Amino acid sequence: MSDIKHLARETVQALTPYLSARRIGGNGDVWLNANEAPDCSEYQLDCSNLNRYPEFQPPALIAAYANYASINGAVFTPEQLLTTRGADESIEVLIRTFCEPASATTAGDSILICPPTYGMYAISAETCGVQVDKVELDAQFNVDYSAVEQAVNAADSQVKIVFLCAPNNPTGNMLDKSKLVKLLQATKGKALIVADEAYIEFCPQLSQADLINAHENLVITRTLSKAFALASIRCGFTVAQASVIEMMSKVIAPYPVPDPVAQIATQALSEQGLEIMRERVAILNNNRMVLANALQQLDCVEEIFPATGNFVLARFKDSKIVWQAFSENGIIMRDFASKERLENCIRITVGNVEEMQRTLKILNSL
User: Fold this and answer.
1) CB atoms near residue 104 (< 10 Å)
2) What is the pLDDT of residues 109-129, one digit of tens each?
3) In DSSP terms, which residues pair with 194 in a beta bridge?
4) 59-270 in CATH: which number?
5) Distance from first CA to last CA of the chain, Å, rounded?
6) Residue 118 contacts by C-beta under 8 Å, 6 or more apart in sequence?
7) pLDDT digit string (tens) for 14-60?
């Protein structure tokens, strides 16, 4: 090992980093591997204050998101929101805020995840020296609420945060509101329950945001990367009771959101921006329905997982053949075949009509 590498923390030396779509890469002209939107909007920038540090939490942006998030009877104040560099930073800040890392004398706290699910929960915990406990999704890939409750309430439990992804990436499963309420009540004062709603704009009626004001231990993370088509600017939000946001605000970087990002995000959350977003969602949801229905008819497909976000996870009879065909035709997908319980699975981002037609043409030829 080099002189420098051995200076790194042992957990970092042993860490396998999260392989994002960009780090994996690929060759092609149709990118359906990162759950990105197939289009983007135009925005105006005021560059007159680029010599100044940005606001810690830009008031116009926070107010705009509070107004947007206040739906289905839930009303949020600015004190209940934190904007971050994507939802990924929210995940890390939550762990750094509420979990004690392991030390030479103590085991430290842990997070609990329900795999198969989004990989950054575990990566963020490991980089912070926090252990990762697991409760597998049930046979239908739904959360096993009873098992999660037992894990949190066990006599020797060190679980401080439970991460529940809904729509779950990559399986698309949603949360059961009544069971979630029981879990929140059973874990009150013991652990935070974090609902990751990165894809919730594609099924807004299934959001858990209306539960926040009644449950101090519920936290929701959101992003502008998906439905808002702003993956490049890295802007996310945490919605919770003010007590949670106050603690997170102690830990997050002093200038988490660059001014150009705040300007673009605020425009995206305007009345016109929201209209554009909802039109995009309607188009992509229709494209998803067409794709899922077509996949059901293909002999090479064994199973279609719940289609709730801007992606569809499909289990093929032989994913290697499918993957090769996509690669040879310049279409880049996300391969999950090596993941436990996801053998022969490929995740397909829902793109525009032309991209979906190209995808189905290849599959029909197999």
Assistant:
1) 4
2) 999 999 999 999 999 999 999
3) 163, 219
4) 3.40.640.10
5) 47
6) 163, 165, 168, 169, 196
7) 777 655 555 565 678 899 999 999 999 999 999 999 999 999 999 99
**Residues 164-178 as b or e (16 or more Cβ within 10 Å = b):** bbbbbbbbbbbbeee
Q: Side-chain half-sphere of 3: how many Cα atoms within 13 Å?
A: 0
Domain extent listing, the chain: 5-39+273-364, 59-270
Looking at the DSSP bridge assignments, the partners of residue 81 are: 239
CA distance 227 to 147: 32
**By the 8 A CB rule, do 34 and 334 touch?**
yes
Burial (CB count within 10 angstroms: exposed 0-12, middle 13-18, buried 19+), residue 56:
middle
Q: Quick one: tokens of 40? A: 């983007």
- Strands 131-134 and 110-113 come out as parallel
Per DSSP, the chain holds a count of helices (H) and strands (E) of 12, 13
C-alpha to C-alpha distance for 192 and 160, rounded to whole angstroms: 6
Type of residue found at 226: K
Question: Which residue's structure tokens are 């029981």?
Answer: 182
Distance CA 40, CA 159 (A): 40
Q: How many CB atoms lie within 10 A of CB 81?
A: 21
Q: Please give the model's pTM, rounded to 2 decimal places.
A: 0.94
What homologous superfamily does CATH list for 5-39+273-364?
Aspartate Aminotransferase, domain 1 (3.90.1150.10)
Distances (CA, A) of 333 to 24, 203, 338: 11, 23, 14
Cis peptide leading into 54, omega within 30 of 0? no
Which residues on adjacent β-strands are paired with residue 335? 346
Average pLDDT (75-81) is: 95
Strands 192-196 vs 159-165: parallel, antiparallel or unpaired? parallel
Identify the bridge partners of residue 113 per DSSP, sorted by sequence position: 134, 163
